[in-house]
Amino acid sequence: MATQKLFVVALAVSLSPTFAFKATRLAARRDVIACFAAGAVALTGPQPTKALVKGSAPPPKMEPKERKCKSIDECEALGEKIKAEAAANERTDFERTKGGDRYRDLVPGSGKAVAEGDTIEIRYRVMRLGTKARDGLSGEGQTIFSFGYGEDEDKVGDTLAVQLSGQNLIPGVGDALVGMQPGGRRRVLVRPERGWRLETGACKEGEQKIDLAGAATRNTATESNLVFKADIGAAIENENACQNKVSQPQPRTYGQKARFGRRFDESLLVELDLVGFADAKKAGLIDPRFERCRQNPFANGCDDGVPVD
Question: 131: left (phi > 0), else alpha (psi -120 to 50), else beta?
Fold first, then answer.
């Protein structure tokens, strides 16, 4: 009975005008919210894309290259012609030092010219020959070590003070500095025998014999430098023993020394900048004996890094 009364009351309320109006507003609000939700999903969801797939076009047909010569004789003649043209265009405006080294002035200097015995300040680059250096001086070289340009652990503007006397400089560089003027730049081609390769004792070119169960003959300076012999016939050689490690210029860092150790017996390009003249006392700070003892504190003539007179 009570249940029937509740049903009648609920039916009456639902049929009343006020309740019908509220129900209509509630339904409309739900429809609006559902519409906004659907729009948000449509905007934030993945959008369909239109991919245009285009295949790779076949390569164009290659036409056979025109042959410049039809026989071996014609090809050889053409090669000789190309060599002659390259030689005709080769620069010949180089000079030679008193030791026969080729050099060319890249930047002219001014003022007093350098002479034997002068103390000067220089900057330098030691480089491998460039790929197009037909005359030994042209082209861009690959730097092995340098000083004064800030390319390694040195600073831009650093200079090396050295006196042009004795064995302070390797022969090729010492002769090239003679005649330069302050502010000038000169490039010189230094051959191994005029550079860092020692030409005395066992390092001198000539036939050398090693007595290991018979005479084995060697004919080059690098092969003749034997520092150890074993009964089994093996020989251990020190490849850098024929390198001049005293006369300037010299590599300073470990990386420079490692690179130079593989190239010191080649013809190398050296660019020299003459900064100016210096006091002899300043050059004494880089006495070759001190430099050698600094590199090897217990070498012959050195006592814990100090030269022994």
Answer: alpha
Between helix 2-15 and helix 17-44 the angle, nearest 10°, is 70
203 and 261 fall within a common domain: no
* Residue 274 counted as domain residue: yes
Joined together, the tokens standing for residue 239 give 């490849």
| Pairwise CA distance, residues 182 & 184, whole Å | 6
Q: What is the pTM of this model?
A: 0.58
Residues contacting 153, CB < 8 A, separation 6+: 252, 253
Nearest to 123 by CA among 77, 71, 180: 180
Check whether residue 132 and residue 189 sit in a common domain. Answer: yes
How many other CB atoms are found less than 10 A from the CB of residue 170? 21
Question: Which 3 state secondary structure label does DSSP give 84?
Answer: helix
* 263: in domain: yes
Residues 236, 252, single domain; the answer is no
For the domain that residue 189 is a member of, what is the CATH number?
Answer: 3.10.50.40
Using DSSP, state whether 37 is helix, strand or coil.
helix
Confidence of residue 58 (pLDDT cuts 50, 70, 90): confident
- The pLDDT tens digits of the residues spanning 272-301 come to 999 999 887 776 655 566 666 766 777 777
In this structure, which amino acid lies at residue 60? Answer: P
Looking at the DSSP bridge assignments, the partners of residue 146 are: 125
